Structure formats: C-alpha cells, structure tokens
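Before the break, one more example. Copy the sequence into your notebook; we will annotate it together after we see the structure.
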Amino acid sequence: MISRYEVKEMTHIWSDENKFQKFLEVERALLDALEEKKQIPAGTLAAFSNVKINIDRINELERTTQHDVISFCTSITEQVEAKFARYFHFGATSSDIIDTALSLQLRDAAHLVRTALEELIKTCLEKARETEDLLAVGRSHGMYAEPMIFGQKFLSFAAELMRRKRDYDHILQSEITGQFSGAVGSYTILS
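Here is what the structure looks like once it is written out:
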C-alpha cells in the first residue's frame, strides 16, 4: 500500500518549487564545472550559495518574459552581485537546464517507485510463504482446472515485479543523464 508519505514525496518531486530547485542545482553544477576549468572567475559558485527560490518572483517575471528559464535566472541573479550574476547560465541554453533538471526529477521519482516495488516484492514473497499449503482451484478458459498451490500466484507476481525492479535498476544506473551543449547543441562554449 502506498503511504501518505510516499504520495507527499512524489507530489513534492513534481512541484514547481522542486522543479526550480533542480534548475538551481543544475545551474550550480554548471558554475562549478566552469569555475574548475577557469572559464569563469574563482568565487562565482560561492556567490550563489545563499540564493533562494522565490516562486512568486518567478511568476511575476514570467508574466512579462513569457519564459520560465529567463524568469528563473533573473530571480536568482537579482540576489547576487552583478560581477557574478553575469556568469549564471553562462554558455547554456534553456534545454540544457530544463532537460537535465527533468532527469533529476525522473531519477527521484524512479527511486520512490523502485522502493515501493521492493516492498511489494517482499509482501508477495511473505504471502507466498503464508499460503504455501493452501490449495486453490486452477482456472482456464473460464472453467475450473487442475488444483494448484495458492502461493504460486504470489510467486508469479513477485517474479514479474523482480523483472520490473531490474528495469528500474538499469534505468537508474544507465539511462538518466544530463547534457550541456549550449545554444543549438553546438558545444561552442561548453565542452
């Protein structure tokens, strides 16, 4: 059974607040990489350490800009000195930020689903053990068939869920990525 906590957590993952928090996480990672490569001045990342997401301000700016990323960037850069603000979103295009942030949201959601799958597998295996001596009438084409052990049904469900869990493990390990290629994907500023 899905707990209220899990529903609340999934709701949070897809909230605007978290979406913009992921935008900020991605932008900070970009600043960190650019600073490490000495493409922007040292201390730039630190200048953004205390910025806050302000949904009201982003929405206010978006009414004028009609662009969520520009509104987000403006709301953030208003909070730092101009000499550092100019390097926020440096070399990136909106898709670099949106797509990578979405990958982070998908990762977090997939972790929740994977955890729920583990619990469901555990429950199916427990139910299989509890019903290993319980006979049930099999069914085929809408008619009764040869008898079977009721626990076998739980084992079948558990086996299918284990396959889905392996799929999630693969996705989490290999398929959730980010990309920073800049405007038109040309890698002219970002390597």
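The mean pLDDT is 93. Residues 35 and 41 are 6 Å apart (CA to CA). Try to locate both features in your own notes.
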